[in-house]
Amino acid sequence: MDINSGVRQEHLDLEDGFGVREVEQYLMRDERRVQKARERYGSFSVTALSPIEAAPQLMKSACMVLRKDKCHMPMMWAYRDGKIVDMISPNFADQNGKYLMFHRLADRVESLRSDGIVLVIEAWWALGEELDAQGQLIPPRDRKDRKEVLHVASATRDGERLSLLTPFSRTKSGEIIFEETITGSDDELGVLGPFMPIFERWKQMDERGER
């Protein structure tokens, strides 16, 4: 049983007082679509048995998709005992939706008893912190020195963390130009903050002694 069913939960946007509408769609594997994907993007596979080891493989495939489609939808893989147990494409329309998305992912991690995750997502990134006149942190999306990046973030329940950032730019003709991939921890790159609901959920599960 899904102990965190969204049917029994509602999140409100405090600015307008209305509930945030959530929609779930389920897709069955279709071998014809799999073949079309291979023809469009080429062949690749994820052979690693852990989220940390899988991150470089998934970055390679993400670059293949971005080069072809000029965009990359968010994708998350959940691991348990060295096996992929779930794959989801979590989408959001604004920052409120993004916050809700990570709480929903934490629900899913708990329901699946997942011990590792990998998320691939397009994002804005800027090195270091910059404050506005009121001393508030300026998010990367609002900074002049921002860069578009492919972000592959992987984490495990026992505390392993890895972020891969591949900055890219677009030519006038739409071609994607990739820069060198940056590898680091959250302390170095400061990009795993949104994942706190998942990390907190793992902590709660550990405190309850749940496996």
Describe this structure in words.
There is one protein chain. The mean pLDDT is 84. α3 packs parallel to α5. Strands 1, 2, 3, 4, 5, 6 and 7 form a 7-stranded antiparallel beta sheet that branches. β5 and β6 form a beta hairpin. The protein is α+β, with helices and mostly antiparallel strands and 211 residues long.
Number of extended strands = 7
Which class do the helix and strand fractions yield? alpha+beta
Q: Could you list the spans in which at least 5 consecutive residues all have pLDDT below 50?
A: none
What's the overall average pLDDT, rounded? 84
Span between termini: 16 Å
How much beta, percentage-wise? Answer: 15-25%
Major sheet details = 7 strands, antiparallel
Q: Give the number of helices.
A: 5
Shape call: globular
Radius of gyration: 18 Å
Helix percentage: 25-40%
Return the string of H and E elements.
HHEEHEEEEEHH
Counting copies of identical and different chains, the oligomeric state is single chain
